[in-house]
C-alpha cells in the first residue's frame, strides 16, 4: 500500500499510541529506579560514592590538623570530644547530604574571619568584612534578620500556595543557620583574643544559648522538610524561632548581653561543653514538636487543611521530634547530675532549675509512654505537645526570671 494514501488522522493516532507507549515505558523505568533506590539492600558502606569518601577524608584531615596543631592546649576530654565529633559529622554528612555544604561553608567563613582578625580584636571595628559580616555580633545579627525574613516567606508560600515563597524561605533558613554557626565559631575565637582566661565555648549565657536554640531548631526542621518533602511546616516552626530572635534582640539591647564576659566559677568546667548542647537539642526538638502540634490542631479543625501535610505525617514528625528530644534531654540531665556532683558535692539538690528539668523530663516521658503503650494519637497528643512547650519555656527561661537557686548565675 502506498504510504502516502494513509490518512493524516491515522498517522496521528499511530504517533499518539507510540508516544503513550514511550510514556508508559519511561514511567515504568522511573518506578523501577525509585524502587531500587528505596529498597537497595546493599550494606550501607557499599552504597557510598567517591564523593562520600572524599567528604569523609576532608573531615578526618581537618580533625588531624586540629589535633596536631593544638593538642598541647587540649585536655583529655577535649581530645575525646574531637575524636567523637569527626565521625559523627561524617555520618551526618553521609545520611543528610545537604549538611555537607553547610559544614564546608561554616569552616570557610570561620577560618576566613580568623585570618582577617590577625590576632587583633580591634580589627572587628576597622575591617569592613568583620564589621558588617563576619564578626560574631554581625553574623548573629544577619542570622536574626534572615530568620525573620524566612518566616515571612514561608507564610507567603503557605497562604498564597506559592512554591517560590516556600523555596525562598527554605534558602533563607539555610543561610541564617550558616551565619549563626559562623557567629558562634568566631565568638569562640574572639573570647580567646580578649584573654586566655576568658576564652570559652559560646554556650555560657542566655544570649549564646538562645542563638544555639534557634540554630538547632532550624536544623531539625530543615531535616524534616527534606525527609517529608514538604515546606508547609516552615511557617509554623519558624514562628517559634522568630520569637526567640525577638527575645535575643531585646536581651541584647536591654542587657548589653552580646558582650563576651569571663565565666563564673560554676561554669568553668568541661561538662558545660557537652551538657548544654545536649540540653538544647532537647529544647529545640520539643519546640519543633509543639509547632507541628499547632499545625495538626489547625488541620484537624479544617483550617489550612488542603495546604498542610496529612495528619499521619504531622503525627509522625511530632512523635520523632519528641523521641529525639527526650533522648538528648535524658543524656543532658544525667550529665548535669554528674556536673553537680563535681561542682556542688551532690548529684541532686532540688534546685529550681533541676526540679523544672525533672518536670520537663516527666512530661515527655509520660507522652512517649502513652504513645507507645496506649497508642496516643490525634488532637490529644497535639495539645499535649503544645502544652509541653509552655512547661519547657518555663524551665528554659521562667526559672531564670522568677526563681533563685544554685543556677542563679543565669538570672535575667
Automatic annotation (TrEMBL):
Positions of the UniProt region annotated as Disordered: 1-21
Its membrane topology: Multi-pass membrane protein
Domain of life: Bacteria
Keywords: Cytochrome c-type biogenesis, Membrane, Transmembrane, Transmembrane helix
Limits of the Cytochrome c assembly protein domain: 203-407
Family matches, as InterPro entries: Cyt_c_assembly, Cyt_c_biogenesis_CcsA, Cyt_c_biogenesis_CcsA/CcmC
Protein's UniProt keywords contain Coiled coil: no
Predominant location category: membrane
Gene: ccsB
Biased composition (Low complexity): 9-21
Keyword Membrane: yes
Ranges annotated as spanning the membrane: 50-70, 101-119, 139-160, 172-189, 201-223, 235-253, 280-298, 319-344, 356-373, 380-403
Localization per record: Membrane
Protein name: C-type cytochrome biogenesis protein CcsB
Amino acid at each position: 500500500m502506498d504510504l502516502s494514501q494513509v490518512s493524516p488522522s491515522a498517522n496521528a493516532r499511530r504517533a499518539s499510541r507510540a508516544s503513550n507507549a514511550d510514556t508508559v515505558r519511561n514511567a515504568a523505568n522511573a518506578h523501577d529506579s525509585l524502587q531500587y533506590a528505596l529498597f537497595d539492600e546493599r550494606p550501607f558502606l557499599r552504597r557510598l560514592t567517591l564523593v562520600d569518601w572524599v567528604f569523609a577524608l576532608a573531615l578526618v584531615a581537618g580533625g588531624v590538623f586540629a589535633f596536631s596543631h593544638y593538642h598541647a592546649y587540649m585536655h583529655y576530654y577535649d581530645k575525646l570530644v574531637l575524636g567523637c565529633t569527626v565521625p559523627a559529622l561524617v555520618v551526618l554528612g553521609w545520611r543528610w547530604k545537604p549538611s555537607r555544604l553547610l559544614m564546608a561553608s561554616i569552616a570557610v567563613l570561620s577560618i576566613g574571619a580568623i585570618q582577617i582578625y590577625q590576632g587583633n580584636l580591634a580589627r572587628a571595628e576597622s575591617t569592613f568584612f568583620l564589621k558588617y559580616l563576619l564578626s560574631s555580633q554581625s553574623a548573629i545579627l544577619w542570622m536574626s534578620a534572615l530568620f525573620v525574613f524566612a518566616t515571612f516567606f514561608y507564610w507567603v508560600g503557605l497562604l498564597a500556595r506559592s512554591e517560590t515563597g516556600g523555596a525562598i524561605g527554605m534558602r533563607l533558613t539555610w543561610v541564617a543557620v550558616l551565619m549563626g554557626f559562623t557567629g558562634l565559631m568566631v565568638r569562640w575565637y574572639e573570647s580567646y583574643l580578649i584573654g586566655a582566661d576568658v576564652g570559652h565555648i559560646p554556650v555560657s549565657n542566655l544570649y549564646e544559648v538562645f542563638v544555639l536554640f534557634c540554630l538547632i531548631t532550624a536544623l531539625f526542621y530543615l531535616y524534616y522538610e527534606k525527609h517529608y518533602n514538604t515546606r508547609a511546616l516552615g511557617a509554623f516552626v519558624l514562628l517559634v524561632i522568630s520569637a526567640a530572635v525577638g527575645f535575643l534582640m531585646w536581651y541584647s539591647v536591654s542587657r548589653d548581653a552580646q558582650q563576651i564576659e569571663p565565666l563564673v566559677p560554676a561554669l568553668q568546667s568541661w561538662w558545660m561543653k557537652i551538657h548544654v548542647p545536649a540540653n538544647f537539642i532537647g529544647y529545640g526538638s520539643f519546640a519543633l514538636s509543639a509547632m507541628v502540634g499547632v499545625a495538626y490542631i489547625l488541620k484537624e479543625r479544617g483550617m489550612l487543611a488542603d495546604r498542610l501535610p496529612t495528619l499521619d505525617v504531622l503525627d509522625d514528625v511530632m512523635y520523632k521530634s519528641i523521641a529525639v528530644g527526650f533522648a538528648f534531654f535524658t543524656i543532658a540531665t544525667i550529665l548535669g547530675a554528674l556536673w553537680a556532683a563535681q561542682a556542688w558535692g551532690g548529684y541532686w539538690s532540688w534546685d529550681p532549675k533541676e526540679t523544672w528539668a525533672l518536670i520537663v523530663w516527666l512530661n515527655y516521658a509520660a507522652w512517649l509512654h502513652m504513645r507507645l503503650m496506649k497508642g496516643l494519637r490525634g488532637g490529644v497528643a497535639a495539645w499535649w505537645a503544645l502544652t509541653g512547650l509552655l512547661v519547657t519555656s518555663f524551665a528554659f527561661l521562667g526559672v531564670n526570671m522568677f526563681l533563685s537557686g544554685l543556677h542563679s548565675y543565669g538570672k535575667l
